[in-house]
Description:
By secondary structure, the chain is α/β, with parallel strands linked by helices. Helices cover about 30% and strands about 30% of the residues.
Amino acid sequence: MQHADRDFAIKTRRYLHQFPELSFKEYKTAEFIRRNLDELGIPWQAVGETGTYGWIEGKGAGSKKVLLRADIDGLPVQEKTGLPFASCHEGVMHACGHDIHTAALLAAAKRLAELRDSFGGTVLLAFQQAEEQGHGALLFREAGLTRGYDRAFGIHIAPDWLLIYQSDEDSLKLYLMRTGTHSDLF
Ligand SMILES: [Zn+2]
Protein backbone atom coordinates (compact mmCIF):
# COMPACT_ATOMS: atom_id res chain seq x y z
CA MET A 1 0.00 0.00 0.00
CA GLN A 2 1.37 3.40 -0.94
CA HIS A 3 1.64 6.11 1.72
CA ALA A 4 -1.10 8.24 0.17
CA ASP A 5 -3.48 5.27 0.07
CA ARG A 6 -2.68 4.35 3.64
CA ASP A 7 -3.20 7.95 4.81
CA PHE A 8 -6.52 8.12 2.93
CA ALA A 9 -7.71 4.84 4.51
CA ILE A 10 -6.74 5.89 8.04
CA LYS A 11 -8.23 9.37 7.72
CA THR A 12 -11.45 7.96 6.26
CA ARG A 13 -11.77 5.31 8.94
CA ARG A 14 -11.20 7.78 11.76
CA TYR A 15 -13.79 10.16 10.34
CA LEU A 16 -16.37 7.37 10.03
CA HIS A 17 -15.54 6.14 13.52
CA GLN A 18 -16.46 9.52 14.97
CA PHE A 19 -19.91 9.55 13.38
CA PRO A 20 -21.43 6.07 13.67
CA GLU A 21 -25.09 5.60 12.80
CA LEU A 22 -27.51 2.79 13.56
CA SER A 23 -28.99 0.39 11.01
CA PHE A 24 -31.19 2.08 8.38
CA LYS A 25 -30.22 5.49 9.84
CA GLU A 26 -26.87 5.75 8.07
CA TYR A 27 -27.79 9.03 6.36
CA LYS A 28 -24.57 10.98 6.96
CA THR A 29 -22.50 7.89 6.30
CA ALA A 30 -24.23 7.40 2.94
CA GLU A 31 -23.73 11.08 2.14
CA PHE A 32 -20.02 10.75 2.92
CA ILE A 33 -19.67 7.62 0.78
CA ARG A 34 -21.51 9.18 -2.16
CA ARG A 35 -19.50 12.41 -1.94
CA ASN A 36 -16.29 10.37 -2.07
CA LEU A 37 -17.51 8.39 -5.08
CA ASP A 38 -18.46 11.64 -6.84
CA GLU A 39 -14.99 13.03 -6.19
CA LEU A 40 -13.46 9.86 -7.61
CA GLY A 41 -15.65 10.01 -10.72
CA ILE A 42 -17.38 6.75 -9.81
CA PRO A 43 -21.07 6.50 -10.77
CA TRP A 44 -23.45 5.11 -8.15
CA GLN A 45 -27.07 4.50 -7.39
CA ALA A 46 -28.89 4.56 -4.06
CA VAL A 47 -30.20 1.29 -2.67
CA GLY A 48 -33.02 2.05 -0.29
CA GLU A 49 -32.26 5.29 1.54
CA THR A 50 -28.78 4.58 2.81
CA GLY A 51 -27.24 1.80 0.74
CA THR A 52 -24.99 2.71 -2.20
CA TYR A 53 -23.99 0.70 -5.24
CA GLY A 54 -21.16 1.98 -7.42
CA TRP A 55 -19.31 0.68 -10.43
CA ILE A 56 -15.86 1.20 -11.95
CA GLU A 57 -15.48 0.17 -15.56
CA GLY A 58 -11.99 -0.84 -16.61
CA LYS A 59 -10.79 0.48 -19.95
CA GLY A 60 -8.93 -2.72 -20.88
CA ALA A 61 -10.29 -5.80 -22.61
CA GLY A 62 -12.53 -8.13 -20.63
CA SER A 63 -16.06 -8.32 -19.36
CA LYS A 64 -15.88 -10.04 -15.97
CA LYS A 65 -17.62 -8.41 -13.04
CA VAL A 66 -16.29 -8.53 -9.50
CA LEU A 67 -18.27 -7.20 -6.58
CA LEU A 68 -16.66 -5.83 -3.41
CA ARG A 69 -18.93 -5.42 -0.42
CA ALA A 70 -18.75 -3.56 2.89
CA ASP A 71 -21.29 -2.98 5.65
CA ILE A 72 -21.63 0.56 6.99
CA ASP A 73 -23.72 0.59 10.20
CA GLY A 74 -22.73 1.03 13.84
CA LEU A 75 -24.04 -0.51 17.08
CA PRO A 76 -26.01 0.83 20.09
CA VAL A 77 -22.89 0.77 22.29
CA GLN A 78 -21.41 3.56 24.41
CA GLU A 79 -17.77 4.10 23.45
CA LYS A 80 -15.34 4.31 26.35
CA THR A 81 -12.04 3.98 24.53
CA GLY A 82 -10.90 7.57 25.09
CA LEU A 83 -9.48 7.61 21.57
CA PRO A 84 -8.96 11.05 20.02
CA PHE A 85 -11.33 9.97 17.24
CA ALA A 86 -13.90 8.32 19.56
CA SER A 87 -17.59 8.40 18.69
CA CYS A 88 -19.28 11.82 18.84
CA HIS A 89 -22.70 10.12 18.90
CA GLU A 90 -23.88 9.30 22.40
CA GLY A 91 -24.69 5.61 22.76
CA VAL A 92 -23.63 4.64 19.24
CA MET A 93 -20.27 3.17 18.27
CA HIS A 94 -18.57 1.46 15.38
CA ALA A 95 -17.85 -1.42 17.73
CA CYS A 96 -18.04 -4.08 15.02
CA GLY A 97 -15.47 -2.60 12.65
CA HIS A 98 -17.81 -1.51 9.88
CA ASP A 99 -16.02 1.85 9.81
CA ILE A 100 -12.90 -0.06 8.76
CA HIS A 101 -14.80 -2.11 6.18
CA THR A 102 -16.25 1.08 4.65
CA ALA A 103 -12.90 2.90 4.69
CA ALA A 104 -11.15 -0.11 3.15
CA LEU A 105 -13.71 -0.27 0.35
CA LEU A 106 -13.43 3.46 -0.33
CA ALA A 107 -9.63 3.15 -0.38
CA ALA A 108 -9.90 0.22 -2.81
CA ALA A 109 -12.35 2.21 -4.95
CA LYS A 110 -9.95 5.16 -5.05
CA ARG A 111 -7.03 2.97 -6.16
CA LEU A 112 -9.12 1.03 -8.70
CA ALA A 113 -10.49 4.26 -10.17
CA GLU A 114 -6.91 5.47 -10.62
CA LEU A 115 -5.96 2.17 -12.26
CA ARG A 116 -9.00 1.78 -14.50
CA ASP A 117 -6.87 2.07 -17.66
CA SER A 118 -5.00 -1.08 -16.67
CA PHE A 119 -7.79 -3.61 -16.14
CA GLY A 120 -10.76 -4.93 -18.07
CA GLY A 121 -14.23 -5.71 -16.79
CA THR A 122 -16.14 -3.96 -14.05
CA VAL A 123 -15.65 -3.65 -10.31
CA LEU A 124 -18.94 -3.28 -8.47
CA LEU A 125 -19.03 -1.63 -5.05
CA ALA A 126 -21.74 -2.46 -2.52
CA PHE A 127 -21.92 -0.26 0.59
CA GLN A 128 -24.63 -2.14 2.43
CA GLN A 129 -26.74 -0.68 5.19
CA ALA A 130 -28.20 -2.43 8.22
CA GLU A 131 -25.98 -5.47 8.44
CA GLU A 132 -26.40 -5.52 12.21
CA GLN A 133 -30.15 -6.01 11.86
CA GLY A 134 -29.67 -8.54 9.10
CA HIS A 135 -32.06 -6.86 6.67
CA GLY A 136 -29.97 -4.46 4.62
CA ALA A 137 -28.91 -7.09 2.09
CA LEU A 138 -32.55 -7.72 1.19
CA LEU A 139 -32.73 -4.26 -0.37
CA PHE A 140 -29.81 -5.12 -2.63
CA ARG A 141 -31.48 -8.40 -3.53
CA GLU A 142 -34.81 -6.72 -4.28
CA ALA A 143 -32.97 -4.25 -6.53
CA GLY A 144 -31.50 -7.19 -8.46
CA LEU A 145 -27.95 -6.30 -7.41
CA THR A 146 -26.97 -9.63 -5.87
CA ARG A 147 -26.77 -11.34 -9.26
CA GLY A 148 -24.91 -10.77 -12.49
CA TYR A 149 -21.34 -10.81 -11.21
CA ASP A 150 -18.63 -13.46 -11.49
CA ARG A 151 -17.22 -13.19 -7.97
CA ALA A 152 -18.00 -11.23 -4.82
CA PHE A 153 -15.58 -10.47 -2.01
CA GLY A 154 -15.97 -8.97 1.44
CA ILE A 155 -14.11 -8.82 4.72
CA HIS A 156 -14.85 -8.76 8.42
CA ILE A 157 -12.11 -7.65 10.75
CA ALA A 158 -11.45 -8.30 14.43
CA PRO A 159 -8.42 -7.42 16.56
CA ASP A 160 -6.64 -10.71 15.89
CA TRP A 161 -8.17 -12.09 12.75
CA LEU A 162 -9.51 -11.24 9.36
CA LEU A 163 -12.39 -13.07 7.71
CA ILE A 164 -12.43 -12.92 3.94
CA TYR A 165 -15.50 -14.24 2.17
CA GLN A 166 -15.79 -14.98 -1.49
CA SER A 167 -18.85 -16.07 -3.40
CA ASP A 168 -20.27 -16.62 -6.84
CA GLU A 169 -23.86 -17.49 -7.60
CA ASP A 170 -23.44 -21.11 -6.45
CA SER A 171 -20.91 -21.14 -3.64
CA LEU A 172 -19.52 -19.33 -0.63
CA LYS A 173 -15.95 -19.70 0.61
CA LEU A 174 -14.68 -18.34 3.91
CA TYR A 175 -11.03 -17.70 4.74
CA LEU A 176 -10.06 -16.95 8.31
CA MET A 177 -6.62 -15.42 8.78
CA ARG A 178 -4.79 -14.45 11.93
CA THR A 179 -3.54 -10.91 11.59
CA GLY A 180 -1.23 -10.61 14.61
CA THR A 181 0.31 -7.20 14.94
CA HIS A 182 -1.19 -5.80 11.74
CA SER A 183 -4.41 -4.99 13.54
CA ASP A 184 -2.90 -1.67 14.62
CA LEU A 185 -2.82 -0.45 11.02
CA PHE A 186 -5.94 1.65 11.45
ZN1 LIG B 1 -19.94 -6.63 11.90
